[in-house]
Amino acid sequence: MSRLVLVLGDQLTEEIAALRAADPSQDIVVMAEVRDETSYVRHHPKKIAFLFASMRKFAERLRGAGWRVLYTPLDDPENAGSICGELLRRADETGATEVLATEPGEWRLIETLRHCPVPVALCEDDRFIASHAEFESWAEGRKSLRMEYFYREMRRKTGLLMEGDTPAGDKWNFDHENRKPAPDEIANDGPPRFDPDATVEEVLDLVEREFASNFGDVRPFWFATDREEARGALDHFVTHALPCFGDYQDAMLDGHRFLYHAVISPYLNAGLLSPLEVCRAAEAAWRDGRAPINAVEGFIRQIIGWREYVRGIYFLEGPDYTARNALGHDRRLPDFYWGARTHMRCLAQSVAQTREEAYAHHIQRLMVTGNFALLAGVDPAEVHDWYLAVYADAYEWVEAPNVIGMSQFADGGIVASKPYVSSGAYINRMSDYCKSCDYAVSRKTGEGACPFNLLYWHFLDRHRERFEGNPRMAQMYRTWDRMDEDRRRTVLREAGAFLDRMEAGETV
Ligand code: FAD
Ligand code: DLZ
Ligand code: SF4
Prior knowledge:
Order of helices and strands: EHEHHEHEHEHHEEHHHHHHHHHHHHHHH
CATH architecture of the largest domain: Orthogonal Bundle
Radius of gyration: 23 Å
Bound molecules: flavin-adenine dinucleotide, ligand DLZ, iron/sulfur cluster
Largest sheet: 5 strands, parallel
Shape: globular
Number of strands: 7
């Protein structure tokens, strides 16, 4: 008796566990574009287009490799609208009584599959370096789950940048050489842009028709949509950007959206690239003298360190993680996150880029959009929904720990040892946004003062009880306490007035 093999939109590799466990001569692959998946948040049209085009091409690839594939496009009149609905329909059609699937990257869908009317056997998703059991055993009994120690385990496990038992270059972490302010010249034009072929064009038309009111531009569309193109994007990064990756990892420039970033997260997360192949390509560049150790170590740490670590946290913490709100924040997400006008250049730029590209790099996400939401006290659930919707690489397993944990401190300090908050000074040091902003970053109070300067102290003041005992924040509180009483009152009053105007829907 044949079985159905479910392949989800972010499981596009022949190495996915359910395919490895199945038999192409008997079992039938099911793939489906469904409303339930396109609507749990209002995804950016580029994200939907990227996934649908990549799914369609992957289905063809599987057919070419001898699989029977039942593929349901979104506009198929028979489309049941949900993954389980499609499984049931295909089970009726083929007489299959069981489904093999690879564990989804979101609790919501795991629960759905567990309660599907057709029995679903879930295989663990082993595209990651650490299994659930390994992460759990690393975490067990630790007072704090800091990424750095986990990362060292992953280095030992993979042998990446290791000379026997010793880290290459005699150090685990070269970050003190990284994170320079933005340079005047960027010697990289960004990722390669792939011209849409007929399959992609068809999907773009569909997405334009069906998701016209979602935030984001579907065209111009330039993402890779199959493995070969994604590999081309990786090779391009290693040659043209990796050598400077570490130095300018935290820089932001008005005219350069990608700087020296890889722009491969959509491909990694959807299965078009594997984390180990990416890291091996970077390591080879260092071994051959094509990229320095600070760049390569920093890059590999993002993948076998941060990426694996956040996934571990998501599954360790369980389905209620996204509902956490340790700081009790409850403000609405301001409309300028959805493109309404703002005078804050850093936010306007990061949001405009997000609308056009479905991409922003880490520091824009953490220190501009994330920083502002945290300082302003926005409800983390709203912040979470925004990030899950607007980035082409966003799936809950990776997005939630970054947003709820790292960026919004809503998990109470599991991921971050202190909140990632800064005044305008940090943004000014790392970017050129402030030069063309309506606000003055040098002004701390009064007409035209940078809102980040006001909100920074407002945040520290309102969360004093929680944070003043944190040794990493003691200096900030000492600085605040040294200000004279009048000045502190002015800062808090102006910050409050700014938040009131923002809530009232004024352009701020
Ligand atoms: P590069 O800067 O070139 O880094 C290389 C790779 O390292 C990335 O492709 C990514 O796979 C990995 N990586 C780097 N940092 C992280 C991290 N913190 N967590 C996981 N992987 C990491 N990443 C996502 O893949 N999906 C998300 O939904 C997502 N949401 C985020 C939300 C916030 C608030 C923050 C602060 C970060 C988020 N990140 C997310 C992490 C990071 O911003 C992106 O992975 C990165 O910007 C992707 O662009 P890139 O490929 O150019 O990355
Ligand atoms: C994100 C997404 C979207 C927009 N659409 C589909 C879809 O139509 N069919 C599908 O199989 N997967 C889709 N996905 C990816 C799933 O939402 C993803 O597998 C889960 O969020 C778990 O990571
Ligand atoms: Fe952003 Fe303030 Fe700089 Fe304007 S002055 S770009 S609001 S940090």
